[in-house]
Write a structure and sequence with these properties.
Strand order of the largest sheet: 3-2-1-4-5-6-9
Oligomer: single chain
Mean pLDDT: 96
Number of domains: 1
Shape: globular
Number of helices: 8
Order of helices and strands: EHEHEHEHEHEEHHEHE
Radius of gyration: 18 Å
CATH topology: Rossmann fold
Strand content: 15-25%
Low-confidence stretches: none
CATH architecture: 3-Layer(aba) Sandwich
Length: about 250
């Protein structure tokens, strides 16, 4: 049983790995034995993470909103003679605004990153996995806001809802190629990016709405992440795992 989540011999690509959940995901998979490819737009933070992880790590700059950048990443992975077994499609953004104040530029920015960017990287990863003929696991990082809505987050919620549907469509089409596609849907998770907000009165009010009466911690995602990354989930595809302290089951 202790080897159930062992990722020795696997290579995992994590997008948006320079901070927050992406950084934590990279550390978790590395600790489980995977060789990790960390990518993001901000390479200075990636350099620090690479030094921290030590061996079994490579970094490549990536802008998921750029088709050219994603194509360059594919070339870099192939040039480094790295196979790709796992994709953590994590890069994302948000621009909280009331719908009536939302500009088309802001709307497009969020969807371009969260949906189109995820599509580009998933397509690239699929191409590599099909070429290697070893299958693989693609994990799209969605959100509980892809299943219910919150105030001032129409663009974010729309992008994550579409990402969940993309996950299911990919899973159906890629199942016979032994490529599994699933999604993690976190609730409110405390990270270095949002800790200031959750210290405010408004942030504390959000916490009171969670049935378990606390924020999630980054490590609360580890079990589901390792499950979907490893052979322990070999018969799972098209699944969406909610990790939210019961937030989605709040009574209406």
């Amino acid at each position: 049983m202790k080897n159930l989540f062992n990722l020795e011999g696997r290579t995992a690509l994590i997008t948006g790995a320079s901070s927050g959940l992406g950084k934590h995901f990279a550390k978790t998979l590395h600790q489980a034995g995977a060789f990790v490819i960390i990518s993001a737009r901000r390479t200075e933070k990636l350099e620090k993470l690479k030094t921290e992880l030590g061996d079994k790590c490579e970094l490549f700059k990536l802008d998921v909103t750029s088709e050219e950048s994603v194509s360059e990443l594919k070339s870099n992975i192939e040039s480094a003679n790295l196979q790709l077994d796992i994709l953590i499609n994590n890069a994302g953004t948000s621009d909280p605004q009331k719908f009536k104040d939302l500009s088309e530029e802001s709307w497009n920015y969020v969807l371009e990153t969260n949906l189109n960017g995820a599509f580009r990287v998933a397509k690239m990863a699929t191409d590599l996995m099909l070429k290697n003929k070893k299958g693989g696991s693609i994990i799209n990082i969605a959100s509980i806001l892809g299943q219910r809505v919150g105030l001032n987050l129409s663009s974010y919620a729309t992008s994550k809802s579409a990402l969940i549907q993309l996950t299911k469509s990919m899973a159906l089409e890629l199942a016979r190629s032994n490529i599994r596609v699933n999604a993690l849907a976190p609730g409110y998770i405390l990270t270095e990016i949002n800790d200031d907000f959750f210290a405010t009165e408004e942030g504390q009010n959000y916490i009171k709405k969670i049935p378990m009466n606390r924020l999630g911690l980054e490590e609360d995602l580890d079990g589901a992440l390792l499950l979907l990354s490893s052979d322990a989930s070999s018969f799972m595809t098209g699944s969406v795992i909610n990790i939210d302290g019961g937030h989605l089951i709040n009574p209406l």
